[in-house]
Write a structure and sequence with these properties.
The structure holds two protein chains of two kinds.
Chain A: E1 16-18, E2 21-23, H1 32-39, E3 42-43, H2 46-56, H3 62-65, E4 69-73, H4 75-83, E5 88-94, H5 103-119, E6 123-127, H6 129-135, H7 140-155, E7 164-168, H8 169-172, H9 175-186, H10 190-197, H11 205-208, H12 211-215, H13 224-227, E8 234-240, H14 244-253, E9 263-267, H15 295-305, H16 314-320, H17 328-336, H18 340-352, H19 357-380, H20 384-391
Parallel strand pairs in A: 5-6, 5-8, 6-7, 8-9
Antiparallel strand pairs in A: 1-2, 3-4, 4-9
Helix pairs in contact in A: 2-4, 6-7, 15-19, 17-19
Chain B: H1 2-20, H2 27-36, E1 42-45, H3 52-59, E2 65-74, E3 79-85, H4 92-98, E4 106-108, H5 111-118, E5 139-143, E6 152-154, E7 161-165, H6 167-176, E8 183-184, H7 235-242, H8 269-287, H9 290-296, H10 300-336
Parallel strand pairs in B: 2-6, 3-5, 5-8
Antiparallel strand pairs in B: 1-7, 2-3, 2-4, 6-7
Classes of the chains: A alpha/beta, B alpha/beta.
Chain lengths: 401, 343
């Protein structure tokens, strides 16, 4: 039995990580080692990355190389099965709470696209419009509308329509999906779900009964139009580590209802521009780079709002070098600068004080602008009809090609 | 003789202006459309009126409820039509906050915008103006008060007539032009703060307006209003829309026949290949210079070929995926509307 975190036992000073709240101890940095330990998942180390490279015959994604996706559950089982010729499918999702997507939101999707291309496997993407309707008190129509708008940005990440099924809960829940929801729900007591998610007597019953909705896309029988007859198809879930509680619950239930446990591959949190201690917030446009930002906006935000580890004066900087631990431009570059050699060079020079903050920021601005511009072009090509096609309940005959 | 010659040029320029304005629907076209859709409505002609009060004099006692219609604009040049029962209190400051635009984010739109975007005359703001392609990005906010009225009164694209219909009829019309009718409590004043997101944020238009004639002030990035959502009016966004790799075969439609949906961009193989070739040749040219020739000599071919593959591989794959997705969508659209063979 895996450790299921009991939220009620958390003392006040500890860091808090769950689907609705992420905060570090004493306003400091998130301790990922502690998190892995507490959650009971595994580190994704270099041998794994090498194995992925061997199996897929292509360079591993920059997020793997830089340790952005750093933890997993049973990813080795997925790779073992893949080596034997057994396929799997990918499952990821988004809670459409706002129209403005920032780069942090794109990270799981960028990685999932790489996984789809590298392993040649199908993907289901869940838009939890019902969750946002309940937690953020949006109207049903608004949450559905946001789901469709977010779908466009997701599609712009480059998913292959012949291998991808996007669905919104309001549209899709029912039939086989709902049957699995009930099966899961029967296996989780009220006390257990309160322990995992911290619900109180004041929370409405919608919230309490939501977790199965996010659990069942892990089971292929939830998608009879896609995986009929493939009940033993494995599932791999790329997500940020704060989603782990849902899937710990799912993995606990799976064997009891005769399904494979889904595997997970988990990422760090993307830091806010103002630094690790800052929070990215939808009401502060300067805390993040949005996919709708212009080149000018990006330059402004990086120059004026990115928290740096550079010293206060040029002389001091030349003498002591930059503090790479807290420097946001370096962190962002480690997410988005493809060239390993160039990143190493920048880190070395900046850390030694030979390169100035301005130069690092300039390079970051270039990289981010190119990324955002590419995304915008792709987004411009996404029409409502394309969204309809991605979201249509249809067979995907070529999903493993 | 002279008088006639003087009058002629102005008459001709007025006529020309009318011809240029082919994209705007006329009142008669709208009425014909309503009849086509089998929407129950009645109409009443009267002298031109510019205000609700004036309109009330003619149609106030006919059993329907008058509407007041505002055409608004925010700081990022996004437009809104607010259509409410004449008695509903509409507080622009509250509305602005509920939309996430901050306290003073909404103003009355300038007169020119009325003609350019809604294509209706002064005093004639009406929800029916969204039938025009030019109004595609205008957000429509409807008073929930309409839903309980037997009969609501609007202008049908000109102010010498009023039409009477109920909310269901309005809904049917709106759906026919690709809009999802959504009614809100315009008098509500919910708190907006860190933990209470603006409840009408979904009504802020997400697409950048395609019109670039309107003067664009570069918005300062330190916008204190809630969200820096979507509709950037800067040129980068407009260019991005224009440079679609999959091309847009029939971009300009004269008169939308069944709905005002944007045309499905064609997966244009020619344009796609041109885009690929452009990128490859740009990279090729940048790779070949005096220095690189000196450096690699006869091996330059291999070197350049490898570099091109390395640099372009992901980019071109992305372009190809967009092309594939577009072609699939075209096929899907056609497939869902195909008529099975009659046997």
């Amino acid at each position: 039995m895996e450790k299921i975190e009991d939220k009620n036992q958390q003392p006040e000073e500890e860091q808090v990580v769950n689907p609705w709240e992420v905060s570090a101890k004493d306003g400091g940095k998130i301790d990922y080692d502690k998190l892995i330990d507490k959650f009971g998942c595994q580190r994704l180390d270099q041998p794994f990355v090498d194995r992925v490279q061997r199996l897929t015959s292509r360079p591993p994604h920059v997020f793997l190389r830089r340790g952005v996706f750093f933890a997993h559950r049973d990813f080795n089982d997925i790779l073992d099965a893949y080596e034997r010729g057994e396929k799997f499918y990918l499952y990821t999702g988004r809670g459409p709470s706002s129209e403005a997507l920032h780069l942090g939101h794109l990270i799981p999707f960028m990685f999932t696209k790489y996984l789809q291309d590298a392993f040649k496997v199908p993907l289901v993407i869940q838009l939890t419009d019902d969750e946002k309707c309940m937690w953020k008190n949006l109207s049903v129509e608004e949450s559905q509308r946001l789901a469709r708008e977010n779908a466009k940005d997701i599609i712009a990440c480059g998913f292959d329509i012949s291998k991808t099924f996007i669905f919104s809960d309001f549209d899709y829940v029912g039939g086989a999906f709902y049957k699995n929801m009930v099966k899961v729900a029967k296996c989780v007591t009220y006390n257990k779900v309160v322990g995992i998610f911290g619900f109180t007597g004041e929370d409405h019953i919608g919230k309490v009964s939501f977790p199965p909705v996010q659990a069942v896309p892990s089971f292929p029988s939830s998608f009879p139009h896609l995986f009929s007859g493939k009940d033993y198809l494995r599932c791999l879930i790329p997500c940020a580590i704060d989603q782990d509680p849902y899937f710990r619950m799912t993995r606990d239930v799976a064997p009891r209802i005769g399904y494979h446990k889904p595997a997970l591959i988990e990422s760090l949190f993307f830091p806010a521009l103002q630094g690790e201690n800052g929070k990215m917030s939808a009401s502060d446009p300067n805390s993040a780079i949005y996919v709708t930002d212009s080149a000018k906006d990006i330059k402004y935000k990086v120059n004026k709002h990115a928290f740096t580890g550079g010293q206060e004066s040029i002389e001091k900087h030349r003498q002591y070098g930059a503090n790479l631990e807290v420097d946001i431009p370096i962190k962002y570059l480690s997410f988005f600068l493809e060239d390993d050699a160039e990143l190493e060079h920048i880190k070395k020079e900046y850390g030694a004080g030979r390169m100035l903050t301005g130069e690092v920021k300039k390079r970051l601005t270039e990289v981010l602008t190119e990324l955002v511009e590419r995304h915008r072009r792709a987004r411009a090509a996404v029409t409502d009809e394309m969204v309809d096609a991605f979201m249509a309940v249809r067979p995907l005959p070529n999903m493993f090609d | 003789m002279h008088l006639k010659l003087l009058l002629l040029p102005s008459f001709i320029s007025a006529l020309t202006l009318k011809l240029i304005d082919t994209m705007g629907y006329s009142k008669d076209q709208l009425l014909a459309r309503l009849k086509e859709l089998q929407i129950e409505f009645s109409q009443y002609e009267h002298p031109v009126v510019l205000t609700v009060e004036a309109q009330a004099k003619y149609v106030g006692n006919m059993g329907g409820v008058l509407s007041k219609n505002l055409f608004l604009k925010d700081k990022k040049h996004r437009y809104y039509v607010v259509s409410a029962l004449a008695d509903t209190e509409v507080d622009l400051k509250v509305l602005s906050q509920r939309l996430g635009l901050g306290k003073g984010g909404l103003r009355m739109a300038p007169e020119e915008a009325l003609g350019e975007i809604l294509q209706v005359p002064l005093g004639c703001v009406t929800p029916f103006a969204v039938i025009n392609e030019s109004a595609r990005h205008v957000s429509l906010l409807l008073d929930q008060g309409f839903k309980t009225q037997k009969c609501c009164i609007f202008h049908p694209l000109s102010n010498n007539m009023s039409i009477f219909l109920n909310a269901q009829g309005l809904d049917k019309f709106l759906k026919s032009v690709g809009r999802n009718p959504s009614y809100i409590d315009l008098e509500a004043n919910p708190p907006v703060g860190k933990d209470q997101p603006p409840d009408l944020a979904a009504f802020v238009p997400s697409d950048s307006p395609v019109l670039s004639d309107l003067p664009e002030k570069a918005p300062p990035s330190q916008d204190s209003t809630g969200k820096s959502v979507g509709a950037a009016t800067n040129s980068a966004a407009v260019t991005a829309k224009a440079v679609k790799p999959s091309g847009n075969a029939q971009n300009v439609k004269e008169k939308p026949v069944d709905s005002v949906r944007p045309s499905i961009p064609a997966a244009d193989a020619g344009k796609f290949v041109e885009e690929l070739l452009d990128r490859a040749s740009a990279l090729l040219l940048s790779e070949i210079s005096e220095d690189s020739i000196k450096q690699h000599g006869g091996q330059l071919g291999d070197e350049v070929a490898n570099n091109i593959k390395k640099c372009l591989r992901e980019d071109l794959k992305n372009l190809a995926t967009i092309f594939k997705n577009t072609a699939y969508t075209e096929g899907f659209y056609a497939g869902t509307r195909y008529q099975p063979k009659r046997h």
